[in-house]
Fold this protein.
Amino acid sequence: MANVTTRSEQACFGGTIGFYSHASTEIGGEMKFSVFVPPNAPARPRPALYFLAGLTCTEETFMIKANALRHAAELGLVLVTPDTSPRGLGLPGEDDDWDFGTGAGFYLDAEAEPWRRNYRMYSYVTRELPALVEASFPVDAARRGVFGHSMGGHGALVIALRNPQAYLSASAFAPICNPVDVPWGEKAFGNYLGADRSRWAEWDASELLKRGSRFPSSLLVDQGLEDQFLATQLRPDSLEAAAASSGQELVLRRHERYDHSYWFIQSFIEDHLKWHADRLCV
């Protein structure tokens, strides 16, 4: 694999789980990512499903904690998970808070100093990483899906709505649905994008729907009702209202007793992978 450093590879459910790094031109530094390749993929390129993790997570978190690999192996899906931000750049303040900077890239392209040169996770996830994966792994470039959790759920919905022709499927677990109007989003957008709030709407799924963006297929969102961030940070009601008023197909499922953790993701990961397989494995 040209330009890719293999950190480790192991057999898993008949396929291969690998952890890799490369020098990213979008980020201006090293980026890490993980890929699960299901059995028999080299014989016939498979769809690639990109998972975007949440605050504080890395490229390893989903692969280790979500219980997804068995299902991906059975369904014939390649899973790809990037890290959640640049790391170790030495920017002032990047390691001061758990919800901003390192581990908190928010899947946008920063516009304000000192972040704009390196915090370009949107361009990394939508352009550079897919090109690298499609050149290095047995992946069908025409069949691409995206999903994520929390901050990553926000990223998945925004990426799908901004690139409706590049992805065939999209879903989210407990996404930040209206970040322009919640503390996590206000902190991240204010620092990454600057004080002009009119710029923030381009990175908010609810606002994009209000502005006319559409995804051609249904969006699937699962939300736990015991989620500690539900009322203050996530706002699924805002996404639901925006989808209803805009005509966007949305399947929003609310679940009693479930919280924001990976136990919640484990409980519904099979549903999400089958949702994507139905749209990608055709």
